[in-house]
Amino acid sequence: MLKPSADLIIGPDQSRYSLVVAVSKRAREIASEAEEKGEILTEKPVDLAVHELMEHKYIVVEPKQEASE
Predict the structure, then answer these.
(1) Which end of the chain has fewer CB within 10 Å, C or N?
(2) Domain count for the chain
(3) Is residue 59 part of a domain?
(4) Residue 54 and residue 64: Cα distance in Å, rounded?
(5) Of 27-36, 37-46, 52-61, which range is least confident?
């Protein structure tokens, strides 16, 4: 499977850390949903989460940064 570059997924104002956190949270949700339904996943949950992000099924929300004084 071809892995997309993080630079292609995130925008210029987004951090890689936020990307990793968002994908990992979604991957855990996918794995949990599959376990509850008794489904066997043929792809890894992280791969599914990355594809969903690329298809704009969810977005990465950056935390608001407070101005330091």
Answers:
(1) C
(2) 1
(3) no
(4) 23
(5) 52-61
